[in-house]
Amino acid sequence: MASPPADWRQDLERLRALGYMDYSDAPALPAGKGVTLLDRKRASPGYTLVVFARTCTAQLVTLEGTVVRSWSDRPCHRWEHAELLPEGDLLVVGTRFDPDRVSDPTRLGRYLMRLSWDGKADWRSDLNAHHDVEVTPRGQLLTLVAARRRIASVDPDADVWDDRLTLLTQDGAVVESVSLYDVLTSSRLRFPLQIVGRRAEKDGSRTIDLFHSNAAEWVKYPELAGRGPLYGADNVLVTSRHQDAVFMIDWPSRQLVWFWGPGNLSGPHDATLQPNGNILIFDNGLARRWSRVVELDPRAPSDLLEISFPRKGQFFSRVMGTSQRLANGNLLITNPAGGQGIELGSDGQPAWIYEGTERTPDGRRAQIARMRRFPSSFVDAIVAGDRSARPR
User: Fold this and answer.
1) Does any domain span residue 387?
2) pTM confidence score
3) Residue 212 Ramachandran class (φ > 0 left, ψ -120 to 50 alpha, else beta)
4) Where residue 10 falls among pLDDT bands split at 50, 70, 90?
5) How far apart are CA 289 and CA 154, in angstroms?
6) CB 169 within 8 Å of CB 175
7) What is the rounded average pLDDT of the residues 201-217?
8) Whether 240 contacts 246, CB under 8 Å
9) Cα angle 294, 296, 300; round to 5
10) pLDDT digits (tens, 9 = 90+) for 41-80
11) What is the pLDDT of residue 312?
12) Which region, left, alpha or beta, applies to residue 329 given φ > 0 means left and ψ of -120 to 50 means alpha?
């Protein structure tokens, strides 16, 4: 780990044990003004889906910041992710719970929901889903589900929150589920599991949030399959904040086929496979105290590309965080606690800056859980009723 502070181990565990996506030491900010910088010649065209965590709202905005569609849910505590589908529906991972009674929403109130283009709820499932959901190439839904279990080899006196990779039908019925713990501890490729994420609950019990996975993505580029088993059509890419790692798992065999991160990543989020076979990762840098985005070829991860702001330490996100490589090569980065999105050009200079306009009940700028840029053709096709245009 590059230049961690002297007391980094103790500090790192303190950061891991903080409330579930609740903590931010950033100054309280007023609601933003929307788009504050737009370089039309350098910004990648399209619409941006902005997911506001604490207001349980998602907005689809133009490059100029005009809101063309908005979705919300009340009453609600937090949205962690929203996925816009080609037909215009919105898949949402959210939470309804009383934070004064329950310290961790993995214990109560989590749900998966599908909203129509006009904001009406198609269905809602009380599945203990968290952080991520997507449509797989075969049309099923893939999400993460928290499952509380006692694992004596981890801790005989504390329950563990295991993450289960779960496939569902388009209407939310569970098809199949796989334990991440079972995969990592039974595969031929052994992963050095670190026992972290210990927490004291309000009811006096102790739990271990062992993985705190935050992203799961089915491999969707069949043209990469010839490069080897790492790019198999039935592989799933998983990001684990508390294991400081990303994993590639072969779904049919329940085998770990690749992992990377321990000693290099610290609290990562949102690993995504790129069309060229590289993996893009938002690295929060809990031990370093500055965040970055890394892009690497998983076959030669030591030759990684590091993207950070001109002055290291200028940007530090303790929680959440996303990155997206755009069609013109720019990089869209989410600054969650600051309620901000920044599109960086290849020269490291911003081409687009967005400040979230949503306010929390106490008047602060709402955190942005996720941002995704969609091609104009994708949204235009939804509006026109043409389902053929799909983003890659």
Assistant:
1) yes
2) 0.91
3) left
4) low
5) 28
6) yes
7) 88
8) yes
9) 145
10) 999 999 999 999 989 999 999 999 999 999 999 888 889 9
11) 66
12) left
Residue 337 pLDDT level (bands cut at 50, 70, 90): confident
pLDDT value, residue 136: 97
Q: What is the average pLDDT across 323-342?
A: 93
Look up residue 3 and give its two tokens. 């230049």
In a 3-state reduction of DSSP, which class is residue 272? strand
Distance CA 218, CA 250 (A): 10
- Are 135 and 143 in contact, with CB atoms under 8 Å apart? no
Quote helix, strand, coil % in the chain, to nearest 5: 10, 40, 50
What is the average pLDDT across 239-252? 97
Residue 53 lies in a domain: yes
240: nearest Cα among 269, 201, 203: 269
Rounded to whole angstroms, the Cα distance separating 115 from 82 reads 10
When the pLDDT of each residue in the chain is averaged and rounded to a whole number, the result is 89
Phi, psi values for residue 378, rounded to 5°: -65, -50
Is 247 within a domain? no
Q: Determine, yes or no, domain membership for 22.
A: no
Cα–Cα distance between 110 and 99 in angstroms, integer? 13
Query: CA 316, 319, 321: angle at the middle one, nearest 5?
Result: 75
Q: Domain of 346? A: 38-126+323-392
Q: From CA 287, how far away is CA 6, in angstroms rounded?
A: 10
Q: Phi/psi zone of residue 384: left (φ > 0), alpha (ψ -120 to 50 degrees), beta?
A: alpha
Label residue 371 by pLDDT band (50, 70, 90): very high
For the chain, the domain total comes to 1
Q: How many residues does the chain have?
A: 392
Strand-by-strand arrangement of the 350-355 sheet:
34-38, 350-355, 340-344, 331-335, 323-325
Q: Cis before residue 75, ω within 30 degrees of 0? A: yes
Between the alpha carbon of residue 182 and those of residues 107, 162, 261, the distances in Å are 21, 9, 20
